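Note to self: keep these together.
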Amino acid sequence: MKTLIIGASKNPERYSYKAAEKLLAHGHKIELLGLRADEIFGQTIDTEKKQYADIDTVTMYVGPKRQPEFYDYIVSLKPRRVIFNPGTENEEFFDILKKNNIQYEVACTLVMLGTKQY
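Structure:
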C-alpha cells in the first residue's frame, strides 16, 4: 500500500517535501505528483496523473482552488482515504468523496506520523 502526495515539491521548506521524507523514514511507500518534474529521495515527482496501483492514502498539499482538476483522478484511484492537510480543506470535495465511499480526514500528515496515528 502506498501514499500519493499531491503537490509534491523538491523545496525542503514545503510541507509536502517534509511529508515525503517522514513517510519514507517511517517505512511507507510513496508516489509523488507535483507541478514540476523533479526527483527527491531517489523518487520521481511526476507531473502527469498516472494510474498508480495500490494507493491507500492520498495526502493533499494543493489548495481548494486547484483541487477540481484532481477530483475525478483521485476517485479513479480508489484510495481508502484522503488527508486534507491544513489549508486544503474543501467541502465540495468532501461531498464527492463521501458519495464514492472514500474516507477523508482533515488532519496533518506530519502530526499523524509523529503521533503514530498514520
